[in-house]
Amino acid sequence: MAFRRNRTVGLAGYSDAALLLARLVVGAFLIWGAWDNIQSAARMAEFARFLGAHGFPEPRWLAPVSVWAQFACGVSFVLGLATRWTGLLCAIHFAVAIAMVDARLGIRAAFPATSLILFGLLFATLGAGRYAVDAMFGGSRR
Known about the structure:
Blueprint: H1 15-39, H2 41-53, H3 59-79, H4 83-100, H5 107-126, H6 133-136
């Protein structure tokens, strides 16, 4: 898994390395964002109350599902495992967050979730790149 340029001209030859860097940063951010809720029942209960206050149905059930989905997306992106499907899940997850919470708070508040939607869609369409578990099992970027 050497970091060699593809035979293409210019910066496009580094697209697999750029995908790796994007996956690592986004994945680490998602893991970090979910970890406090995973580690603390009080934080999970606080998140459930937050969901309830924003009109989500069954917040006590939905809070752990949301947190674990976010954590799983993060791990998947870091590993480059099932990246296309995980990208779709990430995009849907944060589209719901915008629709239910962030849209009322303005563009600045919605930007992180919007960015995660866009990264999810990029990973869904481009795949994980060459430096990923997906590539080891025959997954291709194109």
